């Protein structure tokens, strides 16, 4: 049986885990999850369902991802093999540190053309479909096209973040290059309100073109020409040659064995390494209770040490100055663990920022499972939308350093440190299932907390997600959710942590988990109460 207690006490005001046998899709938007389930019922497998859900999310949750974003996936197939896909695009060939500095910047800007990198998302849909899918993209992308063409009602969390994004962009985005964003996402001169119907013919046309050409139009066809032309018109650096040269990469996954469970992540340039570094440090401790000051203190110290390394070393994998094997060695974990004492440490990392991302998990009755994540970064991304297409371009280049000596320095054609990370759990060579917690630099922190909730404290997937979270911000500053116990917060303050209680739950990630019982084939799913999430199952 699944080794996590199905009756583990859920935290207040949340929901129960979902059990099913034939298929399951967990996502942050009910319409997207249902779209994936519909594809399963039409004969598709878990990978088809994930693509359908992901494409749908570019329409029904554009505050967190889009057609012009990146993606990563971990796939477990029914023959008990695991596959990793890195679909994160590089910087354009025409950009450089010198070019950005000549434009008057001493660090990478967040908006406009300068932080735009090659979008990898559509290439992920194609690669996953070509290798594992049972249905053509023309069938799998139908739900997304339909919602874009005919519209859908705005859900509560989506409406909240759409309003925040509009107000931020109305203040920050002033040039003519941003008109496409306002035309697409604020057609009435404001953000759509909760319950209102929003539609985007541009999204529909683009998704239909991607489906009919297996994404060729996006990278080597008419859509690539449109992106190139708009970039040239407004002084951007992304060119059709950058798009044409791009293909996603199948990668060997990295892992650590945490107390008998193998935790899998995509290798750098993704930050999944940070979660593994932290878990490797924590492997040396036994934890008697989740809600204990010693547990939280050691978790916080481990994640700070892990980020100190991650922010220094993570960049495109073949440009790293140290190897992943060195960083994940038991000797290195022991050395880092020895730094943890009774008082809060003060490491020297960069300052994490928050982001916008969607994570989903899917499983079918045959044994296929997928952990999938995609993002435009920082909500709506760069603010650049190619007119008439719905293609909102990501701003991943914002993560590059303009310091020529930094490992993650900007270079033409280079991938940057990437925040989005899918996770996967196995035990004794068998799949338990996919998990993920979206949200910028919260993601490896969420991965660590959720894995420990299940492995150390035997919480089922829903209870593991429901539990109050914290996140390290910088220095000794830790932000805690409103529901985080006050007595623990006070004890952590006495250990030197600078504790800040957040007014809401928006910055603490939004996760999904699906696990499979190897004996019965029963699926158990959990979804995030911090958003409009749902588990669709049959």
From TrEMBL:
Top-level taxon of origin: Bacteria
Species: Paenibacillus zeirhizosphaerae
InterPro entries the UniProt entry points to: GGT-like_enzyme (IPR052896), GGT_lsub (IPR043138), GGT_ssub_C (IPR043137), Ntn_hydrolases_N (IPR029055)
Protein name: Gamma-glutamyltransferase family protein
Alphabetical list of PANTHER family matching this protein: GAMMA-GLUTAMYLTRANSPEPTIDASE (AFU_ORTHOLOGUE AFUA_4G13580)
Alphabetized Gene3D superfamilies for the sequence: 1.10.246.130, 3.60.20.40
């Amino acid at each position: 049986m699944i080794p996590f207690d199905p009756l583990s006490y859920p935290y207040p005001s949340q929901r129960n885990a979902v059990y099913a046998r034939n298929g399951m899709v967990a996502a942050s938007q009910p319409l997207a999850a249902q779209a994936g389930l519909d594809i399963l019922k039409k004969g598709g497998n878990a990978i088809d369902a994930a693509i359908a859900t992901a494409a749908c999310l570019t329409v029904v949750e554009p505050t967190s991802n889009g057609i012009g974003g990146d993606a990563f996936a971990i796939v477990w197939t029914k023959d008990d093999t695991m596959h990793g896909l890195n679909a994160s695009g590089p910087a354009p060939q025409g950009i450089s540190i010198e070019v950005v500095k000549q434009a008057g910047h001493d660090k990478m800007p967040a908006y406009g053309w300068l932080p735009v990198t090659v979008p990898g998302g559509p290439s992920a849909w194609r690669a996953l479909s070509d290798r594992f899918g049972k249905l053509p993209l023309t069938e799998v992308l139908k739900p997304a096209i339909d919602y874009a063409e005919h519209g859908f009602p705005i859900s509560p969390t989506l409406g909240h973040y759409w309003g925040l994004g509009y107000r931020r962009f109305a203040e920050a985005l002033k040039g003519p290059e941003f008109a496409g964003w306002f035309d697409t996402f604020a057609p009435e001169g404001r953000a759509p309100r909760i319950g209102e119907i929003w539609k985007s013919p541009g999204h529909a046309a683009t998704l239909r073109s991607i489906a009919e050409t297996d994404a060729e139009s996006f990278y080597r066809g008419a859509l690539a020409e449109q992106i190139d032309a708009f970039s040239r018109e407004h002084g951007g650096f992304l060119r059709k040659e950058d798009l044409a040269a791009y293909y996603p990469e199948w990668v060997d996954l990295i892992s650590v064995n945490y107390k008998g469970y193998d935790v899998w992540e995509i290798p750098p340039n993704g930050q999944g390494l940070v979660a593994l570094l932290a878990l490797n440090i924590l492997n040396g401790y036994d934890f008697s209770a989740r809600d204990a000051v010693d547990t939280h203190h050691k978790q916080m110290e481990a994640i700070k040490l892990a980020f100190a390394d991650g922010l220094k070393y993570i960049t495109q994998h073949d440009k790293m100055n140290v190897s992943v094997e060195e960083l994940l060695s038991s000797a290195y974990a022991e050395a880092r663990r020895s730094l943890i004492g009774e008082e809060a440490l003060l490491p020297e990392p960069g300052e994490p920022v928050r982001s916008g991302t969607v994570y989903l998990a899917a499983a079918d009755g045959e044994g296929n499972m997928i952990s999938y994540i995609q993002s435009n970064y920082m909500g709506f991304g760069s603010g650049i939308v190619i007119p008439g297409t719905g293609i909102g371009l990501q701003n991943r280049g914002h993560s590059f350093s303009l310091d020529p000596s930094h490992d993650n320095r900007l270079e033409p054609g280079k991938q940057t440190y990437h925040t989005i990370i899918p996770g996967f759990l196995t035990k004794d060579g068998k799949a338990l299932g996919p998990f993920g917690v979206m949200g910028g630099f919260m993601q490896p922190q969420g991965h660590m907390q959720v894995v420990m909730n299940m492995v150390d404290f035997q919480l089922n997937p829903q209870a593991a997600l429901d539990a109050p979270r914290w996140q390290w911000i910088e220095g000794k500053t830790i932000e805690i959710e409103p529901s985080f116990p006050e007595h623990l917060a006070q004890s952590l303050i006495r250990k030197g942590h600078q504790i800040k209680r957040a007014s809401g739950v928006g910055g603490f990630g939004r996760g999904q988990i699906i696990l499979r019982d190897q004996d019965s084939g029963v699926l158990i799913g959990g979804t995030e109460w911090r958003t409009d999430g749902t588990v669709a199952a049959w």
